[in-house]
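protien #1 (seq + structre)
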Amino acid sequence: MSPNLFALLPEIVLTIAGVLVMVAEPLLPAQSSRKPLGWLAILGTALSAVAAFIQHRAVDAAGAPMMGFYRTIQIDNLSVFFHLLIASIVLVVLLASLDYFEGPVSHAGEYYALLCFGATGMMLMSCSVELLMVFIGLEISSISTYILAGFRKGQATASESALKYFLLGSFATAFTLYGIALAFGATGSTSIAVLATMLHSSNTPLIARLAVAMMLIGMGFKVSAAPFHVWTPDVYQGAPSPVVAMMSTAPKAAVYAVLLRLLFNGAPQLRGEWLVLIQFFAVLSMFIGNLGALLQKDVKRMLAYSSIAHAGYLLTAFASFQQDAVAAACFYTAAYASMNVGAFLVLTQLTGYNENLRTLNDYTGVARKRPLLSALLGFFLLSMIGIPFTAGFFAKFYAFSAALRGGFSWLVILGLLNSGFACFYYLRLLIALYSSPASEIAEPSSTRPSIAATLALAACALATVGLGIMPGRLLHLLQRSAPITLQEQPGNSASLQ
């Protein structure tokens, strides 16, 4: 196999899977089930995870990061971690979606293909060490998610969701691209390694500081950090629940990978400047997210504001130094993915395609009719609060510990205060599930979860429990890989050229 092809092996596998789904979809009879296309996408996603594991073995054997495509792609433990995380998210979402799009829609094949293409862009972002390659991956991911947000074409909220996401996403893309252009103007290159060298060897020009700030603004939109969060509640409310499960976790994971490389590897000399912005985004996200969620009656909008708050918690880890920040941020990303994807997949099973359960009142007494799903949703909500022995507890513990080691105790105090605020709206939904309805309410979906959906829910629950009971192993691996991942030395990398 060509070394350059090996550098993008997971992305190539996903691309082939998406193309095969698109080619096969018109060949199926109009009224036939599209489940075989879903299984084809599942197979492709699983093979991409296997390809990422093969890359991990190759990196371990080489003892250093591997470069490809003229040093624009870097295979290292960070890229492998995010490849596996993104593949896992997409895999469980595909499993839970097999019955969700069965019957009500005639274009389910497009859904499976778009998930594959979107994951391809996210993986490309996480392994790119060249800003233009990051931008290409960002666009591939964004275009897919714009379409997926409006996938329920017959509903006005879906069209509103897609349009708002597209328009505001275009502005964010413009900020990112302009920041890349300014970085090229300041350093003569769009390589993160060259950017670091130029900033280290000379007086940092003002244009370089502006470049980093512009890229932070663009990336802040993608992780729904305040004050770039305004799209999040409307998009989450109108998009299908399994799509929200994916877009609230996988694209953000890819962006966090880019931020770790850009800030700690590309612009460590500007730490004093970008750290102020990161802290501002973190504090604003925590307060706006939690206080906004307290005012919501719609459950999906409440969880949207919750995701804004969690972006703030994760960004507190960036206040630490390189090794602690990388480990804490990566762990938080994995923990948040397990519990948030699980929560939205439970909503998928409870509400069905038409999503007839929307407000907190609609969920009143649901536990009497769907006790297992309600218990599972309650477990994920408790993990989001940060109850001990769940993934959410150790995610916050490591993020706040990293900030403490960085010397920012005030940031940790604000984070703990906001965690207290979050208890109110999470517990409000949990109490509604187990309360007696005062009047006639909407009926939850009576359809039993399929075997595939059950596997997806079980995977999320096991990941949430596993990261809560045995977090040390993953954290140790992340800490060990951080220096190799983010200290790129031209003479210390195995070339795939």
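ok now protien #2
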Amino acid sequence: MFKKLVCLSVLTGIILLTGCSRTESSSNGGKSLQIKGSDTMVNLGQAWAEAFQKKNTNISVGVTGGGSGTGFAALLNGTCDIASASRQVEEKEIAKAKETNMVFSEFKIGLDGLAVVVNPANKVTKLTIAQLRDIFTGTKTNWKDFGGKDGKIVILSRESNSGTHVFFKEHVLRLGNKKGTEEFASNALLMPSSQAISDEVAQNQNAIGYFGMGYLSKKIKVVAVAKDVSAAYVEPTIDNVKSNKYPISRPLFLYTANAPAGAVKEFIDYTLSDEGQQIVRSIDFVPVIERGNK
């Protein structure tokens, strides 16, 4: 229901210096790739890995989450071949890479809309960005302030190493102001994964959370979001993310620690192929390449 489609540029570019690949030999004489990072992209990475291995039986691919920051750290310390990220590499990570003459090569592989979700029993169906900021910073704490029932708002957020956490803070709490200082409310519950947020919202009538729209389900309710009171309220759908109408949209990335070669390049190329982009769509993200239109 929430599948997406878009056409954008594929390769964002190479960001830094030169590094080396971690690709190892597996027990069957083939190659072993490790992908680590964004929890938002774990299901996508696993779907890619399964399909890729069917075509490349001599290459095994392991996929784990932990957050975008964890992926960059693993790439920096040489414990993964590819980092998946729902945010771009930060200056501090670029500076760390310079210390070891490492390169970050960046590949834009899809788009995502950050869905704001509540329990289906919650009467609130729409919120502006300013209202979301009031909720998640703890400025307003009761659902009745937003047309809901009298009840204390339970704030759910991803942990700080999550690219989803960083993006939401920068674009909602700080309204895109890079010099902003707004933070999540001190009583916000930091959840270890998008699935954990979904599960908590499904059973807590006063909870509100956010995550990539690939995790939407019938057990929770999507809140329509408007840029301001004069703008239309929009839900995170394929067309709305594709047209940039949905105000909390973002790109998704894969990074390598050098210009990809060998098995790493084969996997990156696969994710950007027609088949790989169809998998992006099947996991409810927005492809950056329309089928047959590279």
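The two ends are 25 Å apart (CA to CA).
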